[in-house]
Each structure stands twice: as C-alpha cells, then as structure tokens.
Amino acid sequence: MSGSKRVGSQSVELKNRPKIIAATSVVGPKEADGPLGEYFDIKLKDDKNGKDTFEKAESSILHTSIMECIKKGNLKEEEIDYLLCGDLQNQIASSNFAARDIKTPFIGLYGACSTFSLSLSLGAMFVDGGFANYVVSGASSHFSSAERQFRFPLEYGSQRAVTCQWTVTGAGSVLIGSEGNFPEVTYITTGKVKDYGIKDVNNMGAAMAPSAVDTLYMHFKDTGRNPSYYDCIATGDLGRFGRQTTEMMLKSLGYDISKNYVDCGESIYDNARQDTFSGGSGCGCSASVFTGYFYKQLMSGKINKILIVSTGALMSPTSSFQGESIPGIAHAVSIEFNNRGGN
What we know:
six-stranded mixed β-sheet; about 35% helix; 11 helices; Peroxisomal Thiolase, Chain A, domain 1; about 20% strand; 2 domains; 15 strands
C-alpha cells in the first residue's frame, strides 16, 4: 500500500512524530508514600478527595489530571480536539463523569489496565494522521472502587494472597500535539488478546504476562529493534511475579530484557513496607508512573528512549463467576526524545 505506515504485522510507524507536550499525575496517599512519591504532581491526603464516595473521588482525580495537562500546554479545553480516557468502573463511569464537565469531544475507552497505552497510542495516531491538532489521553483507577467491583467490599476484610496486587489510586493524562521540542511517539504495537487459561483472579500477573510477552516479541520483530535500543522497557502492572514470568518467557524466545526492564506495578510501592504483596495494578498504575516519573526522566535527559507497555486483564465479575478464564492484552508505545535543544 502506497504511503502505508504499517510495519510488520502489528505495528505502525508514526512518521510525523506526535509530541507529548505535557503530562500530569495525581495519586493517593499510599502511592505518594511509595518509592516514586516525589515525582508525582498532585498527591491526595484523603482517598476520597473530599467526595462522598470512592467512585466520585476517582472521577475527580481523572478530571484534575486532564485539566492540569491542558493548563500546562497553555491551552483552553475548547482547543482540544479529542479527549480519550478510560477506567475500570462499570461502563467507564469515572471517565464519563469526568468528561461531562469538560468542553471537549470525548471518546471513552476500555482496555482494562492497558487503557493508558491504548489511549496514548490512539491519541498519537489521531495527531499523526492529521485528524487532530491536540488530544488529551488518560486513564484512572482507585483501590477502593476496584475492590468493591472486582473482589470484596473493604468491610469484608478478606485475606489477600501473596500473588495479589494493590489497585493504584491514581490518574495520569498527557497532552499530545504536533509541534514543539518534546518527547515523540515513534512506533505503536497493538496487542492481541492472549489467554493461557488462568482463572485465579488473585493472580493478575500470570494472566497478563503472555500478552506482554507477545506484544514485546512482535514489537521487536516488526521494528527490527533489540531490547538494548531502549533505555527502559516498562510494562504496566504485572507485579513481581508477572514481571519475572515475562522476562523468562521472552528470554526463551531470544530476547533478553533483564538489563533495562522494569514493571510500573512493582516500582510504585515498597511492597514489603507497604504490604502491597506483588505490587500495584489498575489503569492508574502505568498512567501515573509514566506521567509522574518517566516523563520527567525524558524531559531531564536521564533517559532518551522508552517503550511503555501497559497490560490489562480483560475479565469482569460476571465472567469470573461463570468460570471463564482471564484473557490478557498489552499495547506498546515507543517514545523517544533525542533533540532537546534548549530544554
């Protein structure tokens, strides 16, 4: 196809190189107390953020991250062509209600915990294709709203398994445009749904690892790049056990990522001190870690190239109750910043 941006079977090259102009992270008290606490932009002192419910709190932190992003870009909400967001609540309620108070055309997305890289990749495609001048992409999650929906009410006090992960209370948004000296989105590898028959809802890392492996493998195969090309390869929320599985499986396929691979879920908490078991999870995990930590590393020149691979478990309470296994999905976004000029 003449002029095609397709690369290999699952990837695209964004030849106009959309820029990530601004990024904003908002996190809860537990996340602020973790190893990356100093890097987050806005840190709540109250999980409810002054709202009546945890669900309203989640919507409010997503709204804050979006509006702060627009403000950092010196723009008005009317100048944003599309808002792309998603979360874990039924019918992506957090995103819907956040968008209700923003004067921007809205596209709601659901990719479970992979939603941040999904929204980032689609937003970048919109700008690269000339369909938008500015797009805001984001995602959110909340520990208490996710527990109520997917596991047990907090009041139940159920014991957690060692493979469990702690849903991040956080949100992250990025402002994407076509001009300026900022980190650039260069390649996107869209994942396939992979299901290895895992049914344990307390072991999300095992359910998502095969999709992370498949997407990473296809990214390297499609682009011809090796893991060493990147300063950092960061999966979304596999946690300690999922990260180990991913590393081992990729090595068996001929790709050793051990020297530059981290997982956002494993990094956001001090698992031993904060009693978070295998690490963090949720849409807000990779969203807040990228916008809070990695974006600052790119802007400061501490890293030049990162591959962010948000991971998601595509299950629901209904499918779990019906004995279904847990399909996984992962999307990879290559971000590079080599020409900083005066930055």
